[in-house]
Amino acid sequence: MTRLALNSLRHRAGAFAATAITLFLGAAIVMAFGSMLDTAGGAAVDSASEQTLVTMASVVGGWGLVIVAFAASSTLAVATRKRERELAALSAIGATRRQLTRMIVAEAGVLALVATALAVPLAYLGGSALLGVLRDTDQVASGVEYAFGPIAISVGFAVTVLGAVGGAWVAGRRITRLRAREAKLAASLDDARLSRKRKVAAFLLLALALDLAVVTATVFNGKGIDAMQTAGQASIWASIGIALLAPALVGRFATRIAAALERRGGASGYLAAHNMRRRARQMASSLMPIILFTGIATGTLYMQAIENAAPAVTGGDITAAEAKNIETLNLVVVGVIAVFAAVMLINVLISATTQRRQEFARQRLAGATPPQVVGMVGIEGAALVATGILFGSLASLATVIPFSIARTHQVIPHASILIYLGIVATAVVLTLAASVGTARRAIQAPAVEAAAA
Amino acid sequence: MRSPHTAKRSAEAVRLVDVHRTYGPPENPVRALDGVTLGLPAGTFTAVMGPSGSGKSTLLQIAAGLDRPTSGRVFVDGVEMSAGDETELTRFRRERIGFVFQEFNLLPTLSVLENVALPLRLAGRRVDLARCEQVLRQVGLGDRLAHRPPELSGGQQQRVALARALAIDPVAIFADEPTGALDSRSAAGVLALLREAVHEHGQTVVMVTHDPVAAASADSVAFLADGRIVGELVRPTAEEVAERLTRLADERERLAGGVAA
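The joint structure predicted for all components is written out below.
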């Protein structure tokens, strides 16, 4: 089975591209921040610098693990679903479920190893740039030498391989539990029901976010910039918690939006509404990164905007220079996470849309013109991005409202709406460009050939 | 513009005039079709046969508007196939032509009834569900309306595809190896339905197949070799078809041997 795994990686590299890019970027982020630990272990590092470096590495590295595991499992779920037929064929010729799961896990493991190895140069550069920022803002003494060593590499490999293998195991188990015929049925129709585990996980994450929000608004009320410690995390946990509920959100909300568009969108709207209704799980994998991107970017950027506008707290507060440092770091962190969420969004949309080549071809053979097919994908994308922005914005409130209360005693922050409009515009452009652009390319080939593929 | 499905139809459903189709680079072209002229009267059932690589699938795709000829003209119901872009060609096709493919090509997310009504919806035509149901009853699937294609057997799926083709009341139905993925019993059922569409409902059917038994269901068989029509059999039997095919293959081999020698 390991040999089969290597073979399928070699011959179908394209199918694994989305997962590979996600793992590559994730490994680069984890190792860049991990190298702060190597740097902290250097000979000439004073204790204050050391503490900054360790804090930086563990906070962001921890987020890295969460996000990489989440991203790996969602791209792998998309990639594995695409192969249901192949897996059904393997099971028909006698492969056991354990063998199939082992094959999927082995593929992901090998992919993670390769992606992490390739990410080392990028991580080195990223870590060195990060240390540069820390030195320039005087959070780390200027004499501290950059080091990229065993800790960065071992943390990078451990986090990426664990994330990928864990994600593959979850994705593989779901698929291999189905028998050949059932797999074919499942590929054609999946429902919006959430598993019990998913519900429990989402509930716990949302409870954690709520707890952090309450602590921010009460315990840290009037304590100045310290409130960021709890406020920043709240929207990240809330976004992940809501993203786990994505299949149900597609079922309840995106489908309604698509149904409303159906009345205006003719046959394209009709097909889009049907796909929303009957492919909730597939649509959910595209919805999740939209929620994460909107939620995390809105939460963190408004937290910083509120902080910038807030009055300095007298006594025991930090200096203007320190505040500036924290702002820089916040922007670095939100930048890294937002870029990662954006890459994941593009990745998932491109691979999910490419996989539908055969479906598009069948629609064309049934009489759909190219504009009708592209229109259908556009309507689906619009319904998904509207739902994603709505729930991502809700998740961001877990940071924004408590932090605004803590810093300015106002529920509604005094901050420009332009940041939000920028985030919304980015989400809309990324979603539509990735899905509609891919659909356009996917229908270039003659319909007869694409339908037979 | 007159609507092709309500107006009186031309006596000739499909006409190809000196159709050529070449693939590959101009310096080393592969001639899939090499000057095919063919007329198919309305209300007939024609099978197209030939050794593999003879161009029979290309012929079907060009006649059906799924591919364009390199040169030559194609008429469906007396109207020349538009030379416009893919969208125009799709519009031309979906008003006039029904398809049945070896792999069914049904949409798995839609129910049987929704699949049959889809081409009408896409064409912006009035969706007459009662008529779609009636066509499904005609192919023996009146009790499977709400099922989805993956829940049906291969033979049943192919009958859904046939109902989908019939529902638009096409000028012609093009079938590409419609029994290729079916067991012999299901295949016989689908062939009987195709014959019934022609002889009882006046449809025109063109079917590409490599199976002499399937070809024997047709009123006539056109034989294709190296991109040219090389013969015809009227009211064929499976034995005659098989014998003619063997002879075509032998001639090819002799020709190839002659060139080598």
